[in-house]
Specification:
two-stranded antiparallel ribbon; five-stranded antiparallel beta sheet; Phosphorylase Kinase, domain 1; about 350 residues
Length: about 350
């Protein structure tokens, strides 16, 4: 799930830019059309048709060449192992990043497919999804063995401090109450903020202890339904590796399940979670204890997290508003059904 600052605007590349870009890829030949297909926080994406074929053109807004090199090397190696990825196309000099006017571009093959949320995933598909993520984690350990671990921010190891969360709740409450014209969303936000404050007051003693974080390894970093393309019911490509990094692997598995298998009412489909988690454990060798610790930390993270309301009230960005009702309800339901959720992940 994307949680960064609001994306900077970027215009669709013009004919001059596309011509300069494609001259570095002789096989692509001449551009025919270029249409936006995704406007993310870390990149913009375009469907690019040329006289040779179809491509996905990615404009990386941050332009971190070191991170892009890691991403591209990882996907090329994962593809060589048979995982469903879409590695970038190399130009005539073997490079996979083109810098034009200070902007970083990468050209990928166009992958036909669609997205499947949890409601469309059967029990068998849920198992295959868990096995796929487990395979990704074990394969990344192999293909990134020679890559130095990128630095992690100092706060990454510490669980959220409820005292700071209470301050955030007060700030967001004031903003929600001042909103004009007042809408049903503002009323729901106020209700959920008050509810969460009360819940945290009762649960503060359950803050994960220092050192409780599961073993870290290389992970995709943003594994959710919009980053997995399906074709004919089978995964065709895992895309958007912008958050590739070193994190607790089991936490990625739990976060992904909480996105794939959340229902609109804010509950998890625990039967599908169990199928997914069992296959994940089998594919990567993660034990029940590792999953249990990850479930606890992600649950605590959800209790203290208000990024969607921060976007709306502090940044004026309402793109995540539709996700808020289910996400806010999930934190409350998860607390009530904590043991059942834990059992689903640990088997």
């Amino acid at each position: 799930m994307l949680r960064s600052s609001v994306a900077r605007t970027a215009a669709t590349p013009d004919g001059h830019t596309l011509g300069s870009l494609l001259r570095r890829y002789p096989g692509a030949q001449e551009p025919l059309s270029c249409e936006p297909v995704a406007e993310g926080l870390l990149n913009h994406g375009y469907f690019l048709a040329t006289t040779h074929g179809r491509y996905f053109l990615k404009h990386h807004l941050d332009g971190d060449l070191g991170a892009l090199s890691r991403q591209h090397r990882a996907t090329r190696r994962l593809g060589a192992l048979g995982l469903p990825v879409a590695p970038p196309v190399a130009d005539m000099d073997g490079r996979t990043v083109t810098v034009l006017d200070g902007r970083c571009y990468a050209l990928h093959p166009w992958i036909e497919g669609g997205h499947l949320g949890g409601a469309a995933l059967t029990g068998d598909r849920s198992r295959r999804l868990g096995a796929l993520l487990g395979l990704v984690h074990t394969a990344l350990e192999q293909v990134m063995a020679d890559a130095p671990h990128p630095p992690r921010p100092p706060y990454a190891e510490a669980a959220a401090d409820p005292a700071r969360t209470f301050e955030m709740i007060d700030d967001l409450l004031a903003l929600a109450r001042r909103a004009r014209p007042r809408t049903s969303f503002d009323e729901l936000a106020e209700h959920r903020l008050l509810e969460r404050r009360s819940l945290l007051e009762r649960q503060a003693h359950r803050r994960p202890a220092p050192g409780s974080q599961p073993a870290a390894g290389w992970v995709h970093g943003d594994f959710h339904p919009l980053n997995v393309l399906y074709r004919g019911g089978e995964p065709a490509a895992i895309v958007d590796w912008d958050r590739l990094g070193v994190q607790p692997r089991a936490e990625e598995a739990v976060r992904a399940a909480a996105i794939f298998f959340v229902r609109p009412c804010g509950t998890l489909d625990l039967a599908k979670v169990a199928a997914y988690a069992g296959a994940y454990r089998g594919a990567c060798g993660a034990g029940p204890g590792e999953l249990a610790a990850a479930v606890h930390r992600v649950w605590w993270e959800r209790l203290n997290d208000f990024w969607m309301l921060t976007w709306r009230y502090r940044l004026g960005d309402r793109r995540t508003d539709p996700q808020f009702p289910a996400a806010a309800a999930l934190a409350v339901w998860w607390t009530r059904e904590y043991t059942r959720v834990q059992d689903a992940f640990t088997g």
